[in-house]
Amino acid sequence: MRLLTPTFVALGVATLVFYVAGGIVIVAAPLFGEQSLGLTKAPVGFAIAIFSIAALAMRPVVGGVTDRFGRRRALLVGAALTVVGLLAHVVAVSFPLFILARCILGAGEAFWLVAALAAAADLAPDGRRGESLSFLSLTLYIGLAVGPWLGEAILAGGGSFATVWLLTAGVATISLVVAWFVPETAPPHASRASDAPRIRPRLLHPAGIFPGIVILLGLSGMAYYLTFLASYVRTIGLDGASLPLAEYGLIVVVLRIVGARLPDRIGAVALSGSALAASAVGLGIIALVPNLSGLLIGTALFAFGVAFIMPALLSLTVSRVPPEERGTVVGTATIFIDLSFGIAPVAIGAVADAGGYSLGFFVAGLVSALGGVLLVGGAPLRRLLRPRAATLGG
Predict the structure, then answer these.
(1) Range 110-125 average pLDDT
(2) pLDDT for residue 190
(3) I want to staple 325 with a disulfide (CB 3.0 to 4.6 A). Which of 42, 168, 310, 321 is the partner?
(4) What is the SS3 assignment for the chain?
(5) Residue 342 maps to which CATH number?
(6) What is the mean pLDDT of residues 378-382?
(7) Is residue 245 in a domain?
(8) Count of the separate structural domains present in the chain
(9) What average pLDDT is seen over the chain?
(10) pTM
C-alpha cells in the first residue's frame, strides 16, 4: 500500500502553506513587539509564549473533538482561527491587543497540528507510521525555511508590519481553501458525532505522558532558538536571521526525507536519544562561539537533532492506541510542545536578559541534554514506553 496518495499529498500541501504563514510570524512577531510596541526581551518572550499557552489550553479539548467530529473539521477551524488571528495583528496597537491576537493564533495552531498529525497517522500503511509523520512534519520545516525569508523580504523592501500581517493572512487563507478539499480520514465512528459511542471523553491520554515529557525538554532549545534568533543575530553583525533559519530548515528537510524510515527501523529511544544529544551539542557551540561560524556550525548540529526528535516519539505514541483514540493521544503529547514554547521563551529569555543570549543558548542546551538523559538513562520511566504500559484504553 502506497503512502503518497492524493489525500496525503493534499494534506501535506495544506499543512505546508499553513506553516509558511507560521514561518513568517516567527520572524515578524518578535520584531513587531520590539520595534512597533517598544517591548523589552521579557515582554516579547511572554508575547511569543502566550501563543503556546493558548494552544496548550485548547489542546486537550481539541484532541477529543478531533476524534469525535473528525480531522477535516478541525483543520478548517484551525485555518479559520489563524486567518482571524493574523488580521487581529493589524489592529494590535498595544500590548494587550498583541496578546489577544497571539492567543487566537495559538488556538488555531492547536486545532491544525492535532488534526494534521492524526490524519497522517490515519493515512499511514502498516509499518510506515513513522515515515508518514516524518513527511507530514517536513512541511513545518519547509515553512521555517520559506516563511522567515518572505517576512524579512517584505520588511527589507519597505513594507510595514501591517503589510506583513495582511499578506500572511492571505497565505493562511490558501491553507483553508486547500484543507476544504481534504477528505475525512478518521474511522467512521470517530468522524460522525451522531454515530459516536456515548463514552465519557477524557482530556489526557496516559500513552502520551512520558513521550510528552521528553518532547518538552527536547524542544525547549528549539523554542528559545526560534524566539530570539532574529534578535541574537544582530549582536554578531548579521542584518537578519534568514541565513541560519534557511540552513536549519534545509538540514531538517533533507534529513527527514533521507531518514524517513528511521523511526520505524531504529526505534524511539535510540533515535531520539541521539537527536537530543546532537541538539545539546549544537546549542552549546552557539553559546560558546558567539560569531557567524559558531552559529552556522551549531545550527547544523542542532538541526540534525531536531530532525529526529519528534517523528520517533510521535510514531511510538500513536502506535500504542486504537485509531479512534489518535486525536486524544496526539492532543496529549503535543501539549508538551506548547509547554516547551510557553515556558522556554519566558524562563530562558529571563536568563538571556540577565546574562545575554549566549547564556540562554547554553542553558537551552543543558535542558536538551537532560531530555536525553531521561530518555536513555531513566529505566523506570522508560518502561512507560513499552506497549503494555502505553496502551491504556480505559
Answers:
(1) 86
(2) 45
(3) 321
(4) CCCCCHHHHHHHHHHHHHHHHHHHHHHHHHHHHHHHCCCCHHHHHHHHHHHHHHHHHHHHHHHHHHHHHCHHHHHHHHHHHHHHHHHHHHCCCCHHHHHHHHHHHHHHHHHHHHHHHHHHHHHCCCCCHHHHHHHHHHHHHHHHHHHHHHHHHHHHCCCCHHHHHHHHHHHHHHHHHHHHCCCCCCCHHHHCHHHCCCCCCCCCCHHHHHHHHHHHHHHHHHHHHHHHHHHHHHHHCCCCCHHHHHHHHHHHHHHHHHCCCHHHHCCHHHHHHHHHHHHHHHHHHHHHCCCHHHHHHHHHHHHHHHHHHHHHHHHHHHHCCCHHHHHHHHHHHHHHHHHHHHHHHHHHHHHHHHHCHHHHHHHHHHHHHHHHHHHHHCHHHHHHHCHHHHCCCC
(5) 1.20.1250.20
(6) 54
(7) yes
(8) 1
(9) 82
(10) 0.73
